[in-house]
Design a protein that fits this description.
about 0% strand, about 140 residues, mainly alpha, elongated, single chain
């Protein structure tokens, strides 16, 4: 069991570091895009891609912050499993696994992390389309 826990901790530490970088990139990109907002009116097809980019970067930041609670939830799950070990005696008595709600939270956090990654990718695609349209219509 300790070997599995060590591998899980190693994976989570690598993943969390990468995920913090993704959230920081989203915040930086949104700040940069808003600060360089053109003073003149943006042509109609391009402005929708720019707005979509801002919204998707905002979603990436929001879901990235929610996803950053993954180590907290995992630590809580480890604590609950260590306090209430699952034994045959407990199972025959009909006890529930104490970490059922924690596993549900972990599932939500994993979905949020996936949404953050996808929204960052889509924001990048929208930004590229906006830049192409701005070049074509300029």
């Amino acid at each position: 069991m300790n070997h599995i826990t060590e591998l899980s901790d190693k994976y989570n530490s690598l993943f969390d570091g990468w995920f913090k970088n993704l959230t920081a990139l989203s915040i930086g990109a949104l700040t940069f895009l808003v600060s360089l907002m053109p003073q003149s009116a943006i042509p109609s097809p391009g402005k929708y891609f720019l707005i979509a980019c801002w919204i998707l970067l905002g979603a990436s930041i929001l879901f990235g912050l929610i996803g950053s609670f993954r180590p907290v939830v995992l630590a809580r799950l480890h604590l609950l499993m260590n306090l209430h070990p699952l034994t045959e005696k407990n199972m025959s008595a009909g006890e529930k696994i104490p970490s059922e709600w924690g596993a549900y939270k972990l599932q939500i956090i994993i979905y949020c992390q996936n949404i953050a990654v996808v929204s960052f990718f889509l924001a990048f695609v929208n930004l590229v389309i906006y830049a192409c349209l701005k070049t074509i219509y300029a």
